[in-house]
Amino acid sequence: MTTTQITEGITETQSSSRGGIPFLLANVALLLGAIGSFVLAVVTENPTFTWLGILLTLAFVFVTPGFYMVQPNQSAVLTLFGAYRGSDPNPGLRWANPLYLKKTVSLRVRNFTTQTSKVNDARGNPIEIAAVVVWKVVDTARAVFGIDNFTNYVHIQSESAVRQLARSYPY
Fold first, then answer.
1. Which of 84, 81, 34, 91 has the alpha carbon at shortest distance from 62?
2. N or C: which end of the chain has fewer CB within 10 A?
């Protein structure tokens, strides 16, 4: 199976998330409103304020799980019941539908050194070869959904490419 077959049909799209500060302020207002409603319910002995306090508390509890942080050079992949809903590369405090699962993926440049491999070159001479591989994730949707473990995938593909390269040329 080739890489294009593995990741076919999955492309990164922008998510419908929002900046978290307005939602944080609204969430604080919900909490203060709930506390105020419960205090008024006790002082006035009016059950309407109790129900209002319960309603505001439920709204607070529903909104709170929607917050998440995205660090610089990271992206959040958002899913709803297993379906891809978008990627959010915007750093900072963010808010999305509280039912979304949020998985962060690093967009930083990474590198590693492959293991030294003993292979035969094109003339049949034994050689030892290794490589330093520099890579980064470009499409978070393909990295998360197209491959089980994209870090391991890069390591395995790099080892194979180094071996193939060594066998293709005489040294």
1. 34
2. N
Whether 150 and 136 map to the same domain: the answer is: yes
> Which among 52, 85, 107 is the end of a domain?
107
Lateral strand order in the sheet of 74-80: 83-88, 74-80, 101-106
Give the Cα separation of 134 and 149 in Å (integer): 17
- The Cα 41–Cα 170 span in angstroms is 86
CB burial of residue 145 (10 Å; 0-12, 13-18, 19+): middle
Walk along the chain (171 residues) in steps of 10 and give the mean pLDDT of each run.
54 84 95 95 92 96 95 94 91 94 93 88 87 91 87 90 87 73
